[in-house]
Amino acid sequence: xxxxxxxxxxxxxxxxxxxxxxxxxxxxxxxxxxxxxxxxxxxxxxxxxxxxxxxxxxxxxxxxxxxxxxxxxxxxxxxxxxxxxxxxxxxxxxxxxxxxxxxxxxxxxxxxxxxxxxx
Length: 119
Known about the structure:
Number of helices: 5
Structural class: mainly alpha
Number of strands: 0
Helix content: 40-55%
Oligomer: single chain
């Protein structure tokens, strides 16, 4: 009985995760940042390169506020600094790694951040 409930809960969470990738916000972000699909979310770290990095950079620029990143597909110091700031604004660990949770906030950002951008 418990296994069945856990299986049902797991299936519901997977469905919710799939739906989250296709929300109106994600669809709008894909139009603004067309480098990759909103379901293409690999882990990105310092020195990563490619279209997924361009997507993360573009989304961070749409997200707003602080200096805009060059959308060059290179995960350098400026990208790392901005990702760490965005993670802090959303209560995530400030790892600088664009992981599943960080992709989620890039596609669904908080309305505002009261965390000062580091100098």
